[in-house]
């Protein structure tokens, strides 16, 4: 397909999406879609009241057969409207019916009256939380201060119920697993349009975590659960810790189902048992996949996982991936996290690449210590690799390196699959010494930051900035992993994959310096489909002085797939005008 044809397809596709999104939805309102002979009732009320009534009250579509039917309709609608408006804080509504005439339709006039507002609020406590300790005083004051229906606020039944639910949930979240609302009262004075609110909460005793009572654990040791709990027996009860424990087990892939709860019997509060109901997943799994990416071309892979390697609940992962530009075989073993959430990983990899006239064959072995929390990952370790390079038009070389590596990542996003707000930062530092199993002294640093801002209700602004530099007298003797190339998805669109770097013969090889950045604006036209415009810039070269501003820009289509956002982009290389199609799936963290 030519570049112009691709442009035409994308333009037609985006136009179809925009047209479908902009087309007005057909109304299902019986009052506006009927013929001239259909019975019509006109509602005369403020817009918000009218919309509420049209949404919740059913009206007849035919004239009343007799006066009895008409009177029954008036009684029903009056009662339903009164009850409906009560939930919105209108306790003195007036309803008036005007039958149709030869020149006017049937008219329903509603006067909602003044809205009721909160006049006072009383919050009382019983149980352990009522004890006069500094901690309890601070907590009671916080609960009182965060109550939303304060004096002067409009009273709505939904707000009242939501506020009570949030209040008792806040009390139960820490220490008081058996807390409950002993009584609640909303006294309404319709004449004064005032509501006096009162709640009494009985916290019950303060709870502490007891022993784990586990059902369904057959293959793995109890120690596995105890290490991942995040709390110890005797610690004060905290609901967030319990939920985090459940999420950790669910995400471990060791179990098909996990249900964790505390026994909230007040008699057991000093050491409340923790019930853990599990269904173990198959420990050995084989996966096969096919795909295509604009960076590496067609792809096929097979992977094998053993989640109970050596009967120690360690995870063994073996992968064979065949791509047009890269072929990889790797195997890795991950241990269980310890009490401080540190785990060890060791593995080996053989990889062959053929990208931009540079063929490489590398062997690597590594050992690392990793700590993963809700928002961050810290990894440090040692690895050794040997790499054979065959650049077209230049001599073949073989390099070796024993390196120490440090990698830190911080992630804070609203949704890891479909990000709308948040940021991700990466910092990596690694190097080797010519005195210890390496061909050259070098130190490599790399940093990347990505951020998303929501714009309005639908749009998203995304920026990405990355830079890297390898400190060394020369790039020779350094494996490609510790040098830099740029171009392609998640780099500079409009340029071929890893086509920017240092030149060696007829090949593009890694250089010692790299800077790239992205600005992208996404407009979600529907819940699933969106359009994007973007600009990428940067370069990779052998030193900072040789870096140039290579610019690529374009537009694309976005689709929220179950696996993550799918992107199809058409990018233009600024210096030559060359058009290139890129597509990817999922956010590349």
Kindly describe this structure:
The chain is of the alpha+beta class and 589 residues long. It folds into four domains: 40-115, membrane protein fhac (Ubiquitin-like (UB roll)), CATH 3.10.20; 117-202, Roll (Ubiquitin-like (UB roll)); 209-280, Roll (Ubiquitin-like (UB roll)); 337-585, Porin (Beta Barrel). The protein has helices spanning 3-22, 47-56, 67-87, 134-145, 157-172, 222-228, 239-251, and strands at 41-44, 94-98, 106-111, 117-126, 180-189, 194-202, 209-215, 255-262, 272-280, 284-293, 297-309, 314-323, 326-334, 342-355, 358-372, 376-391, 397-413, 422-432, 442-455, 459-471, 502-504, 507-509, 513-524, 529-541, 550-561, 564-573, 579-585. The protein has a 16-stranded antiparallel sheet. A three-stranded mixed sheet has the order 1-3-2, covered by helices on one side. The longest helix is centred in the first third of the chain and has 21 residues, at 67-87.
Summarize this structure briefly.
Pfam families: Omp85 (PF01103), POTRA (PF07244). The chain is of the alpha+beta class. The protein has seven helices and 27 strands.
List keywords for this structure.
46% strand, 7 helices, 589 residues, Ubiquitin-like (UB roll), 27 strands, alpha+beta, 3-stranded mixed beta sheet
């Amino acid at each position: 397909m030519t570049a112009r044809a691709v442009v035409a397809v994308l333009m037609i596709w985006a136009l179809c999406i925009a047209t479908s999104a902009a087309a007005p939805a057909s109304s299902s309102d019986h009052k506006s879609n009927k013929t001239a002979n259909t019975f019509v009732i006109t509602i005369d009320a403020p817009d918000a009241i009218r919309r509420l009534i049209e949404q919740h009250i059913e009206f007849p579509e035919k004239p009343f057969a007799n006066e009895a039917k008409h009177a029954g309709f008036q009684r029903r609608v009056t009662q339903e409207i009164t009850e409906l408006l009560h939930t919105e804080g209108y306790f003195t509504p007036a309803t008036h019916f005007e039958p149709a005439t030869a020149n006017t339709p049937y008219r329903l006039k509603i006067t909602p009256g003044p809205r009721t507002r909160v006049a006072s609020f009383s919050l009382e406590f019983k149980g352990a939380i009522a004890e006069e300790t500094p901690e309890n005083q601070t907590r009671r004051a916080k609960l009182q201060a965060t109550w939303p229906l304060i004096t002067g606020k409009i009273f709505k039944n939904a707000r009242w119920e939501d506020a009570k639910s949030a209040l008792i949930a806040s009390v139960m979240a820490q220490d008081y697993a058996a807390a409950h609302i002993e009584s609640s009262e909303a006294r309404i004075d319709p004449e004064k349009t005032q509501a006096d609110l009162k709640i009494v909460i009985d916290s019950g005793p303060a709870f502490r975590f007891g022993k784990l009572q586990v059902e369904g654990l057959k293959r793995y040791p109890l120690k596995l659960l105890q290490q991942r709990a995040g709390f110890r027996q005797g610690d004060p009860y905290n609901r967030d810790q319990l939920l985090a424990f459940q999420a950790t087990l669910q995400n471990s892939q060791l179990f098909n189902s996990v249900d964790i709860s505390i026994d909230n019997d007040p008699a057991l509060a000093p050491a409340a048992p923790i019930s853990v109901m599990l269904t173990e997943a198959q420990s050995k799994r084989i996966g096969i996949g096919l795909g295509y990416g604009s960076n590496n071309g067609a792809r096929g892979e097979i992977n094998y996982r053993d989640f109970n390697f050596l009967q120690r609940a360690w995870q063994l992962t073996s992968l064979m991936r065949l791509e047009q530009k890269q072929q990889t075989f790797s195997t890795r073993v991950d241990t269980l996290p310890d009490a401080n959430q540190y785990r060890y990983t060791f593995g080996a990899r053989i990889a062959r690449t053929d990208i931009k006239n540079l063929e490489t064959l590398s062997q690597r072995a590594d050992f690392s210590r990793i700590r993963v929390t809700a928002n961050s990952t810290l990894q440090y370790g040692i690895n050794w690799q040997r790499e054979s390079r065959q650049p077209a038009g230049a001599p073949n070389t073989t390099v070796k390196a024993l390196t120490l590596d440090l990698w830190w990542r911080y992630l804070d996003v609203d949704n890891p699959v479909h990000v709308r707000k948040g940021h991700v930062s990466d910092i990596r530092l690694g190097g080797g010494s010519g005195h210890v199993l390496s061909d050259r002294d070098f130190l490599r640093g790399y940093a990347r930051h990505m951020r998303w801002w929501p714009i309005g209700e639908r749009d998203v602004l995304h920026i990405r900035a990355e830079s890297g530099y390898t400190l060394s007298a020369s790039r020779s003797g350094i494996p490609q992993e510790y040098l830099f190339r740029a171009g392609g998805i998640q780099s500079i669109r409009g340029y071929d994959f890893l086509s920017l770097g240092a030149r060696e013969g007829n090949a593009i090889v890694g250089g010692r310096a790299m800077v790239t950045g992205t600005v992208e604006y996404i407009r979600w036209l529907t819940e699933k489909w969106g359009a994007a415009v973007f600009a990428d810039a940067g370069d990779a070269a052998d030193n900072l002085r040789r870096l140039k501003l290579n610019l690529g820009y374009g537009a694309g289509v976005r689709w929220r797939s179950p696996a993550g956002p799918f992107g199809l982009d058409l990018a233009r290389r600024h210096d030559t005008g060359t058009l290139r199609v890129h597509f990817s799936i999922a956010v590349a963290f």
